[in-house]
């Protein structure tokens, strides 16, 4: 129970990787506010340690309300996981403004909104923790993923700047960079028979990761164990030959 007494906010904490992270943080004793757009507010999970709150990371006021709600109900937040993300695949020559803006607005601007709204609370938390969510595709180019790759590369630089700016306030900012994970968007990719066999051939371990494996890395970055880790981008991809 490394996170007893801590309050965590996980954006996109209702499905896929975010849900796995929310469950792992709750299993370590944290109270977790799991936020998403399409969720039944207040529906409890994990014996009441996970509480769902409606929020849209593309809307600054919505994220500010989320942090205030977490603070007023549970104290903190002490840990913020900026996980919410979307993907809109398609060749760049045919990518609509709408799809580009959905990806950049959620994956990059949404992380900015989340970090900005969290700082006043994390400043007062002893050893505040921010964890952002990139992807293997933040470092590697994949045809058909222009907006997604660009958004994740930018999240990694944003994380590094925030780490430098917020360290004097006792807040660490680190980034998880999952590879192909059998959860959420990764599971959809694995179901694509035209793409998955080729991608699977690049995986050193010969398999996709699990949500629990990503979540264990999140627990490390959220806990006191990572006290001197700041500005890191931690790959959780099992090793990829690509
Ligand atoms: N799965 C993988 O293999 C993989 C690999 C590398 C990186 N990642 C990254 O990990 C994160 C989670 O991915 P996933 O695969 O778990 O995706 P997912 O299953 O599609 O879940 C995405 C979550 O984000 C929420 N969300 C989306 N837009 C939102 C918004 N504007 N405001 C608030 N919440 C929003 C969704 O809920 P609502 O739709 O109800 O809002 C949902 O809870 C993403 O950042 C993704 O890029 C995933």
TrEMBL record:
UniProt KW Oxidoreductase keyword: yes
Annotated Gene3D superfamilies: NAD(P)-binding Rossmann-like Domain
Annotated Pfam families: adh_short_C2
Recorded GO MF terms: oxidoreductase activity
Every Ketoreductase domain range: 6-179
Keywords: Oxidoreductase
This enzyme's EC code(s): 1.1.1.-
Family statement drawn from the similarity comment of this UniProt entry: Belongs to the short-chain dehydrogenases/reductases (SDR) family.
Name listed for the protein in its UniProt record: SDR family NAD(P)-dependent oxidoreductase
Organism: Streptomyces longisporoflavus
């Amino acid at each position: 129970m490394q996170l007893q007494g801590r309050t965590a906010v996980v954006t996109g904490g209702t499905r896929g990787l975010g849900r796995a992270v929310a469950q792992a943080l709750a299993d370590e004793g944290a109270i977790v506010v799991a936020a998403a757009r399409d969720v039944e507010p207040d529906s409890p999970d994990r014996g009441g340690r996970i509480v769902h709150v409606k929020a849209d990371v593309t809307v600054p006021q919505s994220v500010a309300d989320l942090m205030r709600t977490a603070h007023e109900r549970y104290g903190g937040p002490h840990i913020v996981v900026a996980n919410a993300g979307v993907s809109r695949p398609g060749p760049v020559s045919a990518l609509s403004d709408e799809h580009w803006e959905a990806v950049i607005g959620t994956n990059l601007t949404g992380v900015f909104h989340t970090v900005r709204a969290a700082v006043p609370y994390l400043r007062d938390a002893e050893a505040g923790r921010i964890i952002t969510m990139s992807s293997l595709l933040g470092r590697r180019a994949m045809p058909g993923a222009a907006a997604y790759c660009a958004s994740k590369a930018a999240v990694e630089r944003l994380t590094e700047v925030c780490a430098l700016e917020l360290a004097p306030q006792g807040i660490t900012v680190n980034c998880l960079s999952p590879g192909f994970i059998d959860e959420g968007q990764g599971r959809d990719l694995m179901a694509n028979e035209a793409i998955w066999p080729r991608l699977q051939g690049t995986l050193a371990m010969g398999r996709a990761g699990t949500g629990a494996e990503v979540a264990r890395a999140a627990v490390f970055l959220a806990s006191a164990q990572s006290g001197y880790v700041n500005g890191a981008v931690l790959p959780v991809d099992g090793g990829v030959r690509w």
